């Protein structure tokens, strides 16, 4: 099968979905009003509530949701064949992710920019709100652990990526001051910053003295490191500490100082990166060597395929970003379609190239099946396979292999870092909200809530020991992250459906993907929690069992409550603004 043909089919479906389906949802279902006073204007504070140009906000929103997950999930899911992964990415993006991301943004804008967890109180009751907030809290905690683990390992594996990543921080601060203090345009400075980043990437990939190789500094992989931990474990610990210090600062600064300008740079980086990869696809014109469907798997595709693709098709975390930060920055309500739905489409485009980079990497179907000999092998090798495959595509436009590999790793790390500090900021909001709910106002203080978020995230990624030894928390939590993430998306779609029903509007656009997603996810989670991760298993299974069981019970409770609202006419409180 020709890879370019598959890419064209996917792009056409994405374009039609945005042009027609999202327009129908915006005009006929959500009924966006260009004159509605959005929370960014009503509650403008210069810190969280900041009216923002829709292109800049799309950059922040998209790069916040486009972490490593839409790359890693599809790169693993091709284990069952490229066709099932492709179909779920394309159709899931158009009919599920687009409605979910767009809907949570519109719902939050109509409710003072509050999170979906808080809005659950007005739609399905106080108890559901508390349960929902705890599910969200556990999910963002796992997001922090997973992405901190991914970034630290990529820094260790690709030391040439460190300099360009850290150069971006002062550049973003400079852009923030230039735009918001001196009223400059953001486009040209961000393009300059991007050029500086890629210039640093080229230099670092060619000159070893510009690479920050902590393992090499300690004598290589056999080095002793600190406290006898070994060089790799010591390097991992150092990077985790550095990352936690960074996200503490980034998540407490006003959004215009670092978050928005850095995300705008990353949005350009994404466009450039995707441009390089898709141009490389055209010039190399590769053939898909992986099988369309794989009949020799050790794990059934049903229902695990839909959980594994995760953010490549739909993600509950996107709803947290939509209602947690993006809704507070939306300038006009009609911008929600561009920011929310098109953000989901951008995620689908990224997931599509992830699939194509992996399934064109191997010389034959036999080589693919050797690399993807089991689901465990797919999990272990997915990210590395993408980096290698993407580097080959980038080489199609003439980039040397070392530079191509560095640029691909920078793209992944940049998006993961963006998701990480947005997630910590969201966790701060939730901790503060729970603190006020349980009469502990000290937790509502920004620095206290951020400290709790950062310290708990660091503990979760560092303490558990798994097959990779010290610091395996992110690796261990990945299977649960996928199920919890999809479950959260299903519950958020349920809230959108309840909201639309209360307003007397057609809620089919939300209820159909909701039923499909909850059915698949609850089956997968039940199988994993009570069979695969049963309490009598290993220490690592115990971690998954405890987190998974709590999320599963809370989710079922919320679903039953919401079902009563939808079917029995129980009257919840009306949304504040509508």
TrEMBL record:
Protein source organism: Bhargavaea ullalensis
InterPro entries in UniProt:
CstA, CstA_N
* Sequence similarity: Belongs to the peptide transporter carbon starvation (CstA) (TC 2.A.114) family.
Q: Where in the cell is it found?
A: Cell membrane
State the signal peptide span. Answer: none
Keywords from UniProt, A to Z, are: Cell membrane, Membrane, Transmembrane, Transmembrane helix
Topology in the membrane?
A: Multi-pass membrane protein
**In this protein, which residues make up the domain named CstA N-terminal?**
2-365, 375-524
| Bilayer-crossing regions | 6-21, 62-80, 86-109, 130-152, 158-180, 187-207, 227-249, 270-288, 300-321, 341-362, 397-421, 442-463, 475-500, 507-530, 542-566
Q: What is this protein called?
A: Carbon starvation protein
Q: What is its main location?
A: membrane
């Amino acid at each position: 099968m020709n890879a370019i043909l598959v890419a064209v089919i996917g792009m056409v479906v994405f374009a039609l979905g945005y042009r027609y389906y999202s327009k129908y949802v915006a005009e006929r279902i959500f009924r966006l009003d260009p004159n509605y006073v959005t929370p960014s204007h009503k509650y403008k504070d210069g810190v969280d509530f900041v009216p923002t140009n829709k292109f800049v906000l799309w950059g922040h929103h998209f790069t916040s949701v486009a972490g490593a997950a839409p790359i890693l999930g599809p790169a693993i899911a091709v284990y069952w064949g490229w066709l099932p992964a492709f179909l779920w990415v394309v159709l899931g993006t158009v009919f599920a992710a687009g409605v979910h991301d767009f809907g949570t943004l519109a719902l939050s804008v109509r409710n003072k920019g509050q999170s979906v967890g808080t809005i659950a109180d007005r739609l399905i009751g106080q108890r559901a709100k508390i349960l929902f907030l705890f599910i969200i809290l556990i999910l963002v905690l796992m997001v922090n652990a997973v992405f901190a683990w991914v970034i630290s390992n990529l820094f260790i594996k690709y030391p040439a990526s460190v300099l360009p990543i850290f150069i971006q921080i002062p550049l973003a601060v400079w852009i923030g001051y230039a735009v918001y203090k001196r009223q400059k345009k953001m486009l040209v400075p961000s393009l300059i910053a991007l050029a500086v980043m890629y210039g640093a990437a080229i230099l670092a990939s060619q000159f070893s003295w510009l690479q920050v190789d902590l393992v090499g500094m300690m004598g290589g992989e056999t080095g002793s490191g600190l406290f006898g931990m070994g060089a790799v474990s010591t390097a991992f610990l150092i990077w985790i500490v550095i990352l936690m210090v960074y996200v503490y600062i980034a998540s407490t600064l006003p959004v215009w100082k670092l978050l928005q300008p850095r995300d705008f740079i990353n949005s350009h980086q994404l466009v450039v990166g995707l441009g390089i990869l898709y141009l490389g696809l055209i010039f190399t014109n590769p053939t898909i060597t992986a099988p369309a469907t794989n009949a020799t798997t050790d794990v059934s595709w049903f229902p695990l395929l839909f959980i594994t693709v995760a953010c490549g098709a739909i993600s509950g975390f996107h709803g947290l970003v939509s209602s947690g930060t993006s809704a507070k920055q939306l300038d006009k309500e009609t911008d929600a379609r561009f920011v929310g739905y098109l953000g989901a489409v951008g995620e689908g485009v990224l997931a599509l190239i992830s699939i194509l980079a992996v399934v064109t990497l191997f010389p034959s179907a036999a080589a693919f099946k050797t690399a993807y000999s089991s689901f465990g092998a797919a999990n272990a090798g997915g990210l590395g396979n993408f980096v290698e495959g993407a580097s080959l595509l980038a080489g199609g436009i003439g980039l040397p292999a070392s530079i191509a590999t560095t640029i691909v790793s920078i793209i992944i790390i940049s998006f993961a870092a963006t998701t990480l500090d947005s997630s910590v900021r969201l966790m701060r909001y939730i901790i503060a909200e729970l603190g006020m709910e349980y009469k502990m106002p000290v937790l509502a203080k920004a620095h206290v809530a951020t400290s709790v978020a950062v310290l708990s995230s660091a503990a979760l990624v560092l303490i558990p020991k798994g097959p990779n030894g010290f610091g395996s928390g992110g690796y261990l939590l990945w299977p649960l992250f996928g199920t919890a993430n999809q479950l959260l998306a299903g519950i958020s779609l349920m809230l959108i459906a309840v909201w639309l029903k209360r307003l007397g509007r057609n809620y089919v656009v939300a209820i159909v993907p909701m039923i499909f997603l909850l059915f698949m996810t609850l089956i997968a989670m039940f199988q994993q929690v009570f069979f695969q991760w049963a309490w009598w298993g290993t220490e690592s299974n115990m971690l998954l069992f405890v987190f998974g069981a709590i999320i599963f019970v809370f989710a079922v409770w919320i679903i039953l409550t919401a079902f009563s609202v939808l079917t029995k006419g129980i009257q919840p409180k009306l949304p504040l603004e509508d």
